[in-house]
């Protein structure tokens, strides 16, 4: 059933595709172009993503609500939307240059500090994690400060309040202290003076 596609190159800018589709209906041709039919439309997938990300409802609980065959389907939807958002936010919030920063510097920061030398406000945040079944992993993830298993991230934002993707460090276990996370993060590139 696999049909051969013939490419007719007319010029560098114009390429047309013709195929041996004699006797095939338009629906069959369209189905072959798109691949398999998706189970949900994009609005339902977005709702599934939001229910998991914002409400904290587990994938096992969401699957029967939407008639999905397995939680794996829900996992794939959540993973795909997380990647779409990651790419979209990277395009929307690029890493600013120093000149971009100075052009958009808030007047309130200038009045408060009297200079425009702040490039990044840096802080650590912790995200709660499930308790690991292995005791060694649980000991690494356990945070004395939060009294729970956590992952720690260093997050930087500019004085305008924008956080770009390269201003978020990799995740560290909750037991790590901020100076150790700081020394091993890539955020030092932005803040350490360079010759």
TrEMBL record:
Residue intervals of the DDE Tnp4 domain: 122-190
The UniProt keywords, alphabetically, are:
Metal-binding
The organism's superkingdom is given as: Eukaryota
Q: Which cofactor does it need?
A: a divalent metal cation
Which GO MF terms does the UniProt record name? metal ion binding
Q: Which PANTHER family match?
A: SI:CH211-262I1.5-RELATED (PTHR23080:SF133), THAP DOMAIN PROTEIN (PTHR23080)
Q: What is this protein called?
A: DDE Tnp4 domain-containing protein
What species is given as this protein's source?
Cyclotella atomus
């Amino acid at each position: 059933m696999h049909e051969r596609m013939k490419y007719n190159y007319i010029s560098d800018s114009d390429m047309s595709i013709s195929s041996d589709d004699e006797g095939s209906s338009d629906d069959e041709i369209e189905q072959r172009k798109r691949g398999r039919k998706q189970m949900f439309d994009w609005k339902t997938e977005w709702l599934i993503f939001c229910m998991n990300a914002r409400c904290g409802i587990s994938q096992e609980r969401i699957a029967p609500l939407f008639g999905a065959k397995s939680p794996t389907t829900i996992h794939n939807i959540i993973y795909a939307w997380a990647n779409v958002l990651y790419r979209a936010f990277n395009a929307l919030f690029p890493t600013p240059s120093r000149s971009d920063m100075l052009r958009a510097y808030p007047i309130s920061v200038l009045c408060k500090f009297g200079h425009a030398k702040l490039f990044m406000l840096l802080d650590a945040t912790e995200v709660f994690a499930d308790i690991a079944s292995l005791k060694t992993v649980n000991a690494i993830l356990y945070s004395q400060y939060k009294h729970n298993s956590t992952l720690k991230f260093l997050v930087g934002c500019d004085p305008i309040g924008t956080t770009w993707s390269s201003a978020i460090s990799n995740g560290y276990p909750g037991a790590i202290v901020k100076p150790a996370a700081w020394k091993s993060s890539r955020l030092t590139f932005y803040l350490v003076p360079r010759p």
